[in-house]
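Quick question, first post here. What does this chain look like in 3D?
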Amino acid sequence: MIVIHAFQQPNCRKIMKKVISLLAVFLVAVMWSAAGFSADKYVSGAVGISWMNDAELEDIAGLTDATSLDAELDFSSGITLLGALGCDYGDYRVEGELGYQRNDVDALNLVLPSEWDWVNFKNDLYITADLDGDITVLSLLMNGYYDIALGGGVELSPTVGVGVAQVSMGDVSVNGVSCNDCPDGDGVGAIPLEEWVEDLDLNIHEVTFAYQAGVGLGIPLTNNIMLDARYRYFGTTDFTMLGVNTNITSHNGLLGLRVMF
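> Answer (accepted):
Ran it through. Tokens below.
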């Protein structure tokens, strides 16, 4: 499994570079097309809180499917920063958006099923490794908005977006490992748990496809400035972590400004 991913990564990165180039060309074409010239241009920025969902690690060396091993990585809340350049056509908007998201890495949770015959225990074992580190997501998305006028210049704006994201996790350290009912106290069979977790390579730098969907509320402050309050659901497609497949999803609450020019 790991060898297959190793051969796939260079091809995946080439594809991502092409996607980024296409997004940039598309944005320039939209901005400088005849329709783009007739549209109002704007820049926007937003800051908010992100709640990253736990990441389930799938197919760990084939063990998750073969033995019902459960593994997931837990994260705490973090910060999201967004900046965008776009065109406003009246009822709808198109923009290119650069995003940054950072969350703390909290724990790695494992559930070892009791039916494994190479270790000696009667019940399922719940193992938690307390981690210290962070995960960052740098994204480039093309977004579309449909603006619904509510009166008084206020707008309700459903939105969707697609693009690419770079997921990075580094400087992750292990603060300790706990296990309920481990037959050997600090290990399972001949495996010392803390040493095993510390040997895992938790440093990743992966590029993958990304998407988002959400809704915003725009409130006019002046003739050309809007206060934007937004909710977005952000996610990525599968990428490789610890030689296995996983993805990142998060909920985000954002507040920002949109300035027309």
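Residues 1-10 have pLDDT under 50 and may be disordered.
DSSP finds four helices and 14 strands in the chain.
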